[in-house]
Specification:
The complex is a heterodimer of chains A (605) and B (217).
Chain A (H helix, E strand, L loop, with lengths): L4 H12 L12 H18 L3 H11 L8 H17 L3 H14 L7 H16 L3 H13 L7 H16 L6 H18 L2 H17 L3 H18 L2 H18 L2 H139 L3 H32 L7 E5 H18 L3 E6 L4 E5 H17 L6 E9 L2 E9 L5 H9 L9 H15 L3 E7 L2 E8 L32
Parallel strand pairs in A: 2-4
Antiparallel strand pairs in A: 1-3, 4-5, 5-7, 6-7
Helix pairs in contact in A: 2-3, 4-5, 4-6, 5-6, 6-7, 7-8, 8-9, 8-10, 9-10, 10-11, 10-12, 11-12, 12-13, 13-14, 14-18, 15-16, 16-18
Chain B lengths: L7 H10 L5 E3 L9 H10 L7 E5 L4 H8 L5 E4 L4 H15 L11 E4 L2 E6 L2 E5 L4 E7 L2 E6 L3 E4 L3 H7 L4 E5 L2 E4 L3 E5 L4 E4 L4 E3 L2 H10 L5
Parallel strand pairs in B: 1-2, 2-3
Antiparallel strand pairs in B: 4-5, 5-6, 7-8, 7-11, 8-9, 10-11, 12-13, 13-14
Chain lengths: 605, 217
């Protein structure tokens, strides 16, 4: 690359500027680094690795600021020059223009001249001929830079060519510079250069219509070119000569030259074909590479798409999992609530079926229990009728009395069933009021005295007259009626019923003891346990159960105890309390009053 | 008993006229205006508002419900239990006077200007004119009639306000029914009642008493 003489010089100058190559040790580490950097860079040029140089120089960046100006110049110059060599003219032009502007104070060194020369050549290549000529002349005139003789030949040749172009046509100037170039080439003994120069001079003459001179010059050029076989020049020379000879009427000569031209042209064409093929091959190679690159890019895109797809899949999967989890939770919750509802429903169902069973049982008991007394009444009515017909009054009275007691029992049963129906109704509201226990007990006893007398049962009522309870009067009456009824029904002849009412702890206890049959142990156990809702023992069972229910509604309870010769029933109630929360019955009992008045104590007489 | 009526028109007229303490109503009185309508009339104020008790042979639910909304004191069914009836009557009176349980405890209930008291299982209505004097005994008062005395759980002042003007205070602990006053023994500061009983009189009230009743031995 840097093959020409001045370029070799340039490379040497670059090397000479390197302290590493000159074994000059810098003062500090940083300096050393900078020097090493410079050395590294210029070594790329030495090794011909120009691309690497460009890359590394870009990479070195700010470190180069610490290098000397000359070093920086050489590096910039190298960069610009490499671009020029690579025929990247636009970039090279820019770099060169900046280089020349930046390092004006280094204009005395030869390298600077080379740079100007290069810039001129770039202008020439870019067909900016005016600037090219200007810069060529600058190099030409400046004695400091006069580099090697090759360059001089090139400069003069190029200036001459510029003056031959249509825009800057000047035959005299063109001839002047071409002749100069020619003489330099002659000096150099460069036959191609001489031939080229002669061709150009001939062109100049030809343009000035000095055909004879042109032909002479061209034939001289032909003399040099033909033996050497400079085909690029030959084709033009033959063509030009053929053209001029034709003009002058030398048709034979023209034809001969024309033939020669055709030959050369064909050779050149063949050569060019080879080149063209090579070019095509190259283009094909490039295309292949490009397609490969495209393929790779496509692959990359595909991969990216694949990655995106996978990401999307993963995200979708996560979302799906979350959604499924949420759904599961919802279902679980719904299941739970449904289960809870079902539980309630099944509990209600159980309750209902139990109630229904109770109802059925009750129904069968009632019908059974009603059937026999009604049947016996029917029979005894017949008997009664008979005795009335027979006027047997004593018998009639007996029958009527039997009937009455039978009816009483039946009535009690019906009452209980009615009460049970009422108590089972929704919204059966107990109305609590202050109830005087003794009055209530006496009222209740009134209805049973005649029954008791029939069985010669003595009734002892010994209730505390000061006790009041807080209760629903109606339901307490039902309970008492049942208890008293049982107390008489299961009593023996000449038996007793003892009632007493006292305060027990925080409750009021109404105790009813009766002689006769003891309550069965199982009934007692069931009732006391509070799970007696089974009518064991016929209609009597209904009564007890009703009592339990009613007592519970009153906030109290019923307990049965079997004694050796009878049953003890205890009813527990809440005592009535006044506004201050005091039990009413705990009030001081009024003194017993005598009918006679006392004398006033303070009548002093 | 203030009176009886065999049908609702009679009852309506009688109730408007006499000042009954309590009304016992049958429901089916024989013609269109039945006992429930009468009860409603008493509630609405067309008739003197008095406590009433239903005593009827009607045991059906519809009748009971209809009766219930007239707020009777009791709803008794025939055949009736006399003890239950009397208890219901006592309770009605006690409730109207806001003094439930008083009668059962042997006390008296003041109602409608009279005193009601239970004696030997009977409810007695005592007119204030029968009461000769009132004596404070501890936390309650004793009402002394000619042959009995009754407990009244009221303060002397409350009794004073309630009793007719014939009663006047003669001592810190005594109220006197002036109609029963026979003579005043000023030196002994004693009052002789018409039934020969004697109650004390304090100086504070003696002068006023002498002015109004210049009866001296």
């Amino acid at each position: 690359m840097f093959g020409q003489a001045n370029e070799v010089n340039f490379v040497d100058s670059v090397k000479n500027c390197c302290n590493v190559c000159r074994s000059v040790i810098p003062e500090n580490n940083k300096g050393l680094k900078v020097e090493e950097q410079y050395h590294k860079l210029h070594m790329f040029i030495d090794n011909g690795d120009l691309d690497r140089f460009l890359v590394e120089k870009q990479r070195a960046g700010s470190l180069l600021l610490f290098s000397s100006e000359l070093q920086r110049y050489y590096l910039d110059h190298s960069e610009a020059h490499i671009l020029f060599l690579k025929e990247l003219y636009i970039e090279a032009k820019e770099k060169h223009e900046r280089l020349i502007e930046k390092y004006k104070n280094l204009s005395h060194i030869v390298s600077y001249g080379i740079a100007v020369h290069d810039l001129a050549s770039i202008y020439y290549e870019l067909e900016e001929y005016e600037k090219a000529v200007e810069h060529y002349k600058l190099v030409w005139v400046n004695q400091n830079w006069i580099p090697d003789i090759n360059s001089q030949a090139e400069i003069t040749n190029n200036i001459g060519l510029v003056y031959l172009t249509d825009a800057y046509y000047n035959a005299d100037s063109a001839l002047f510079y071409q002749n100069k170039s020619l003489s330099i080439n002659r000096q150099l003994n460069d036959s191609l250069g001489i031939a080229t120069g002669l061709l150009n001079i001939g062109n100049a003459y030809s343009n000035e219509y000095e055909d004879a001179k042109a032909i002479a010059i061209w034939e001289e050029a032909l003399g040099i070119a033909e033996p050497k076989g400079y085909k690029d020049i030959l084709d033009e020379l033959y063509y030009n000569l053929a053209f001029l000879h034709e003009e002058q009427g030398n048709l034979q000569a023209a034809l001969a030259y024309r033939k020669l031209f055709e030959e050369v042209l064909e050779e050149n064409w063949n050569r060019d074909r080879v080149w063209e093929l090579a070019e095509k091959e190259k283009a094909y190679e490039v295309e292949l590479r490009e397609s490969r690159i495209n393929g790779l890019e496509k692959e990359k895109k595909l991969q990216q798409a694949e990655t995106e797809r996978k990401q999307w899949q993963r995200n979708a999967f996560i979302l799906l999992c979350l959604a499924l989890g949420g759904l599961g939770l919802v279902i679980w919750r719904a299941y739970r609530s449904k289960k809870a509802v079902n539980k309630v429903i099944s509990a209600k169902n159980d309750e209902l079926s139990e109630l229904n069973a109770t109802k059925d049982q009750l129904f069968s008991i009632i019908t059974h229990d009603l059937r026999s007394p009604v049947l016996s009444l029917k029979r005894s009515n017949q008997k009664l009728l008979m005795s009335l017909v027979e006027r047997n009054h004593a018998q009639a009275i007996d029958i009527a009395q039997d009937n009455r007691s039978s009816l009483d029992n039946t009535f009690q049963l019906i009452e209980n069933v009615l009460n049970w129906g009422v108590s089972q109704q929704k919204g059966y509201d107990v109305q609590f009021e202050k109830v005087h226990v003794r009055s209530l007990v006496q009222q209740m006893l009134y209805d049973y005295r005649s029954l008791a007398e029939e069985k010669a049962i003595t009734i002892e009522e010994n209730c505390n007259p000061t006790i009041f309870i807080r209760a629903d009067l109606y339901s307490v009456k039902v309970v008492l009626r049942n208890v008293l009824d049982n107390a008489i029904k299961y009593n023996c002849k000449n038996g007793y019923i003892r009632l007493s009412c006292n305060r027990q702890h925080s409750e009021v206890r109404l105790k009813i003891e009766n002689s006769g049959v003891s309550v069965p142990k199982e009934v007692q156990a069931k009732l006391n346990a509070g799970t007696n809702h089974v009518f064991k023992g016929g209609s009597g069972g209904i009564g007890l159960w009703l009592c339990d229910d009613m007592m519970k509604k009153n906030g109290g309870r019923i307990k049965l105890f079997s004694m050796d010769d009878g049953t003890r029933t205890c009813l527990y109630f809440n005592p009535f309390k006044d506004e201050k929360g005091q039990d009413i019955y705990s009030r001081r009992q009024p003194r017993r009053l005598r009918n006679s008045a006392r004398r006033p104590a303070n009548t002093g007489r | 008993m203030a009176g009886t009526a065999s049908n609702s028109n009679e009852a309506y007229a009688a109730l408007a006229e006499i000042d009954a303490d309590l009304v016992i109503l049958d429901i089916h009185l024989g013609d269109t205006l039945d006992g429930i309508a009468l009860a409603r009339a008493m509630n609405d104020g067309d008739l003197p508002g008095r406590p009433f008790i239903f005593l009827t042979s009607a045991t059906d639910k519809a009748t009971f419900q209809a009766a219930k909304i007239t707020h009777p004191h009791s709803y008794l069914t025939k055949p009736f239990n006399p003890l239950e009836l009397s208890y219901s009557i006592e309770l009605a009176i006690e409730k109207t006077s806001d003094d439930v349980g008083q009668l059962a405890l042997g006390g008296s209930v003041e109602y409608n200007g009279f005193f009601f008291v239970k004696q030997n299982g009977m409810l007695n209505k005592i007119s204030p004119s029968e009461i000769a004097y009132v004596k404070v005994e501890g936390k309650y008062c004793e009402l002394h009639s000619q042959d009995s005395r009754y407990i009244c759980r009221k303060s002397l002042t409350a009794l004073m306000n309630m009793l007719p003007n014939d009663f006047r205070q003669v001592h810190r602990n005594y109220l006197l029914n002036a109609n029963h006053l026979l003579k005043i023994d000023v030196p002994d500061r004693a009052i002789y009642l018409s039934d020969k009983r004697i109650i004390p009189v304090s100086l504070k009230y003696l002068d006023d008493l002498q002015k109004d009743y210049p009866v001296l031995s």
